[in-house]
Amino acid sequence: NEIKIFSPATVANVACGFDVLGFCLDSVGDDMVIRKTAKKGIHIANIEGFDLPYEAELNVAGVSALAMYEAIDVDFGFEIEIYKNIKPGSGIGSSAASAVGSVFGMNELLGKPFNKTELTAFAIEGEALASKCEHADNLAPALFGGFTLVKSLSPLKILEIPTPNDLYATIVHPQIEIKTSESRALLPKEVPLSDAITQWANLGSLVHALHTNDYELIGNSLNDVIVEPYRSQLIPYFNEVKQAALKANALGVGISGSGPSIFTLCKGSETANKIKQAIQDVYSKTGIDFEIHVTKIN
Ligand code: HSE
After folding, report:
1. Where is 241: in which H helix or E strand?
2. Considering only CA atoms, which residue is closest to atom 1 of ligand 1?
3. Which residues does the UniProt record annotate as the domain GHMP kinase C-terminal (predicted)?
4. Alpha helices in 71-186 (DSSP H)
5. pLDDT, tens only, 148-191
6. Which residues on neighbouring strands pair with residue 175, listed in sequence order?
7. Residue 9 β-bridge partners
8. From atom 4 of ligand 1, which residue's Cα is the shortest distance away?
9. Could you give the angle at the alpha carbon of 142 between the alpha carbons of 32 and 35, nearest 5°?
10. Residue 280 near residue 264, CB atoms below 8 Å
11. Which single residue of 91, 97, 276, 297 has CA 20 to 30 Å from 39?
């Protein structure tokens, strides 16, 4: 009647795939407990780590749970405990981990009536509360793992993309908060056709590179000419981190989701740790507090 789950952090956009591409960070995430209760409805029983609302209608995990609860007909309820490790506003899918965790756990307790795409649809409602718009590029990799591409929201269609065997991510999180809603408001409503061409060429070639284990092409494709020029200004020492990581043999560097976290991809754990060191060298001179994670992408 109770399940403990780990709900992973994720990197959305992956440079050229704004709002559609994302990957899962297996070793970073939140812990949650979901429990059946005699009392009907959805209740948030405990939240640790960060100060978040207990009212289910105002809580990301609560809103996605309510969306699922409305779609089922049961004479019991659920309570949710959230042990949050992913800082809200960090750019590694904090709200998505909450949104996905509650519906994943409920689905397990119900005997899995819903598939992962259906779970994503419920979770979109929770994610929308946090970012004020519907997008699934963090939710899908949190549920499916690895790399995913959200082909369309309506109808919801998610594609799983294979990951080369030796692909690692190094993610740095400077300890400032950027709200997704604010970071979206910065973006232009229209983009020049020439930039759009560059961006979709990069996205197509990145997806091809992931399918064909072509590390060099992964690196050549990790460019974002549309969003990064606007958002990088919010991230302290973004260009310095980028140059240091590339010098340490990162295949590519970009903003993780809506920032301020920065992700880098590389081949092999040794390089990933060298990149970690190079980024530490940049930030430790600036007085900015930061956290760094190295993880294999599965
Ligand atoms: N695709 C979203 C954005 C991810 O960049 O705004 C952040 O939640």
Report:
1. helix 238-247
2. 19
3. 207-284
4. 94-109, 116-131, 139-144, 180-185
5. 999 999 999 999 999 999 999 999 999 998 888 889 999 999 99
6. none
7. 25
8. 257
9. 25
10. no
11. 97
| Contact present, 257 and 12 (Cβ < 8 Å) | yes
SS3 37: strand
**Distance, CA of 186 to CA of 13 (rounded, Å):** 16
Ligand 1 centre distance from Cα of residue 21 (Å)? 10
The verdict on whether 180 is a catalytic residue reads yes
Across the strands, what pairs with 255?
Answer: 262
Q: Atom of ligand 1 at shortest distance to CA of 93?
A: 8
CA distances for 70 relative to 41, 85, 135, 146, 168, angstroms: 9, 29, 21, 30, 39
pTM, rounded to two decimals: 0.96
> How far, in Å, CA of 29 to CA of 253, rounded?
21
- Residue from 137, 139, 148, 235 whose mutation best tests the ligand 1 pocket (most atoms within 8 A of CB): 137
Burial pattern 17-34, b for ≥16 Cβ within 10 A else e, equals bbbbbbbbbbebbbbbbb
Query: Residue 159 to residues 6, 162, 201: CA-CA distances in angstroms?
Result: 22, 10, 18
Give me the amino acid identity at 23: F
In a 3-state reduction of DSSP, which class is residue 233?
A: helix
Tokens of 66: 């309510």
Q: Take residue 210 and report the two structure tokens written for it.
A: 């992931």
The values of phi and psi at residue 191, to 5°, are: -125, 150
